[in-house]
Amino acid sequence: MAEKLVFKEGFMQDATHEEKIAAKFVNCVMKDGKKNAARKVVADALMIAEDKIGEPALAVFKKAIDNIRPSVEVKSRRIGGSTYQVPTDIKPGRQTALAFRWLINFSRSRSEKGFANKLAAEVMDAYNERGGAIKKREDTHRMAEANKAFAHFRW
């Protein structure tokens, strides 16, 4: 087994981009202010994924998040008594937030025992471009594609 994944307190100036994303993800997983518990769960999940895939944990996590990240979404816009679903581009911060949210929600709905195992399974599925979070991204893109005729209502 590889060396234990450790999250540093705060952001170091030499911290890599992947470490910052993982630290943000820990904050999203955290419930009731229990950050150490969230750190342990995320670290365990990434170690499980690293063991099964055979690549570094942070690289697996980064690729999984990049695979989940949506590039367009639809927003409701009311025009002249009708409501249209208008496709819009998403800012990078929101893309990451949506990816985190979908990954956590679909992990919680899995049938494995223990959240670390659920999270590891969903991360591995996202890494391999399958699973609930990837399906959600594809549905979002499909909805935007279907409504691209209303793109001229964008503002």
UniProtKB/TrEMBL annotation:
Keyword Ribonucleoprotein: yes
Domain Small ribosomal subunit protein uS7: residue ranges: 6-148
Keyword rRNA-binding on entry: yes
Source superkingdom: Bacteria
Keywords per UniProt: Ribonucleoprotein, Ribosomal protein, RNA-binding, rRNA-binding, tRNA-binding
Family matches, as PROSITE patterns: RIBOSOMAL_S7
GO MF annotation: an example: rRNA binding
One of the protein's GO biological processes: translation
GO cellular component: small ribosomal subunit
Subunit structure and binding partners: Part of the 30S ribosomal subunit. Contacts proteins S9 and S11.
Function: One of the primary rRNA binding proteins, it binds directly to 16S rRNA where it nucleates assembly of the head domain of the 30S subunit. Is located at the subunit interface close to the decoding center, probably blocks exit of the E-site tRNA.
Family: Belongs to the universal ribosomal protein uS7 family.
Protein name in the entry: Small ribosomal subunit protein uS7
Species for this entry: Desulfobacter postgatei 2ac9
Gene: rpsG
